[in-house]
Write a structure and sequence with these properties.
This protein is of the alpha+beta class and 444 residues long. Helix content is 30%, strand content 23%. It contains twelve helices and 16 strands. The strands form three sheets. A seven-stranded mixed beta sheet has the order 11-10-12-14-15-9-16, with helices on both faces. Helix 2 packs across helix 5, helix 8 crosses helix 9 and helix 8 packs across helix 11. The longest helix has 21 residues. The protein is globular, with a radius of gyration of 22 Å. The two termini are 24 Å apart.
């Protein structure tokens, strides 16, 4: 569809928990890892209508039902209805989650035909024009219910990264959708345990994470790797891997990250100077002992992979990534506790900021694969598409597809670099540029 889309905000309100939070739970301390994050993370779920064109009354009832189930869900996830306090804690005061309802003047399938990053931003509550009038820097959770002309729905969230990583966000949406289905089963109680592992420091935390910029000079585009192309890419890399590189059966994430990284660096003309690839890792299963999947908070961290110059082949990139991952999981992941964890975090942030000061290009990879967002069923069926439109410079966000066999990626680069990146012959041998998000590509 075109680059214009009319969005009409119908209501703005706050949704409070259906029962008050107990006095014992009125303050939730952030963890040290929570303190290092400062952005709002986006997530959007798209659902087609079960009927040809629902009446306005049916849509109103659906909105009321969602708000009611949200209120019940916030009883369990009470910090999401609170307010951030000085980068140290959340005041669980039941002020509520910010809730927007909007009418989108187009059909859902037209919107999904070739998803446009600028139009996607209009669906997110953090971009509501009235947000600037609110103290949004301390609101934990913002939600937007988008109602398309055809009756399709998009449920979008902008959630504070101070308390929710991808796994935590799924736990929230899984609970909300379970309660919405009424007979959907029991809600798994969330566990807010981050501060017990890595207690927060005071507001004068010595080292701040530098957030990558975003703005009009950057371009965000979606790339799709079909299952058959992924198989060919894996076979190519596996066939050229030598025994001393310790790489057996490279993963889909590794091979996709490698080719994206190689082509992005080539497009930026930085192949003759040092560059860094960073990859985020879920710490829950890698700590000792492992943390339960319903642990809420930031239990993620990234590790860097350094390349002195980029005159390397894909299998060499994958081998270095695997070596970095194994080292991180064996030597560092178990240390994210207590004073040892504090030293590790400070050391990591110092290194990260030093790279930025030196002007070394860093390419950041985040994978939401294996986080089952596509199972989020509010009672109307599973989403036709779910996406995490995180648009920051040199950011790559990998996610599952509706059939689970392919990978799609949002890529954000400087405009002039994107113009070369999207024409890179090696990339286009395996990736398609922004195919329809409304079609399941299982057999291709």
């Amino acid at each position: 569809m075109g680059k214009e889309m009319k969005v009409e905000i119908i209501t703005r309100k706050t949704i409070k928990p259906s029962s008050p939070t107990s006095k014992n739970n009125r303050t939730l301390k952030l963890s040290l890892l929570d303190q290092s994050f400062s952005t709002y993370s986006p997530m959007i779920f798209f659902y087609t209508s079960n009927t040809n064109t629902p009446s306005s009354l049916e849509l109103q009832e659906r909105s009321k039902s969602l708000q009611k189930s949200l209120s019940k869900t916030l009883v369990h996830f009470y910090p999401l209805a609170g307010r951030l306090q000085n980068n140290v804690s959340i005041d669980c005061n039941d002020e509520g989650a910010y809730f927007v309802e909007a009418h989108i003047k187009c059909n859902l399938l037209d919107f999904l035909n070739q998803p446009n990053s600028k139009l996607i931003n209009h669906l997110l509550p953090i971009n509501d024009p009235q947000i600037s009038k609110l103290p949004t820097n301390n609101v934990v959770l913002l939600l937007q219910l988008n109602l398309f002309s055809c009756g399709g729905i998009a449920i979008a969230s902008s959630s504070s990264h101070k308390i929710l990583d991808a796994s935590s966000l799924f736990s929230f949406f899984n609970a909300w959708s379970t309660i919405s289905r009424e007979n959907g089963g029991k809600v798994v109680p969330p566990q807010f345990i981050g501060a017990s592992l890595l207690p927060p420091k005071d507001d004068n935390f010595p080292i701040k994470r530098t957030v990558a910029p975003k703005g009009p000079n950057f371009s965000s585009k979606r790339f799709f790797f079909y299952a058959s192309k992924l198989a060919s890419l894996k076979a190519k890399i596996s066939s050229t891997t030598t025994r001393n590189q310790h790489l057996v059966n490279p993963s889909k994430v590794e091979v996709v990250s490698a080719i994206l990284f190689k082509c992005a660096v080539a497009s930026s003309h930085s192949s003759r100077r040092p560059v860094v690839l960073t990859q985020f890792v879920n710490l829950r299963t890698r700590m000792l002992p492992p943390m339960p999947p319903n642990s809420i908070g930031n239990l993620i961290w990234s590790f860097p992979v350094f390349f002195e110059e980029m005159s390397v082949e894909l299998h060499e990139i994958v081998a270095k990534m695997r070596k970095g991952l194994v080292h991180f999981c064996n030597e560092k992941a178990p240390r994210f506790k207590g004073e040892d964890g504090f030293s590790l975090v400070c050391e990591s942030l110092r290194e990260e900021n030093k790279l930025l000061e030196m002007g070394i290009d860093t390419y950041s990879f985040t994978s939401a694969r294996n986080v089952p967002f596509l199972e989020t069923d509010f009672g109307w069926g599973k989403p036709i598409w779910a996406t995490c439109p995180l648009f920051y410079k040199n950011k790559f966000v990998l996610s599952d597809t509706t059939c689970g066999s392919g990978i799609e990626v949002w890529v954000t680069l400087e405009e002039q670099h994107m113009a070369m990146f999207e024409r890179h012959e090696e990339l286009l041998e395996y990736a398609s540029i922004n195919p329809s998000a409304a079609i399941t590509h299982c057999r291709m």
